[in-house]
Protein: NUDIX domain-containing protein
Organism: Cutibacterium namnetense
Amino acid sequence: MATPQFILDLRRHIGHAPLWLAGSSAVVVRDGPRGPQVLLVQRADDGEWTPVCGIIEPGERPDEAILREIHEETGIVAEVVQLVRVNVTAPVTYPNGDRCQFLDHDFLCRWVSGEPIVGDDESSHTGFFGIDQLPPMAPRHRRCIEIALNPADTVIMSSDIATPALQETR
């Protein structure tokens, strides 16, 4: 499902007005033949490679949401290791004019079983990549992977918006 029904329902009332949404992202790691590998998906809409991410449904916990998204998008079964970051994304405007901004919960997850498959129409490709063989991707996605692979003792609070009041903290 590309856009959850609750968002489609809201859009009928508010049009393209900005929405503040909760999201989850996962850096899923498994041991590969030459070291750790990270699960990535290639988005069908813009071709960008990203960690698995998605919108949290009403009443759903962020950790439950990301495990659901991992399985829906890739067929992989994973388990949450830890929450590594809570990040405010920059505002996004989609091609249809919808505007939103996310409070994203970034998780380090461990692969449990399965081989990656494209599970829905949100992605065109999926696969595990060696840490030193990641495809080109946006800096914010590389940062998510970097943080998850080198977790701090506490959750990082950060923002993609460059303002003096919103600095990354641990």
Remarks:
- The first helix runs from residue 5 to 14.
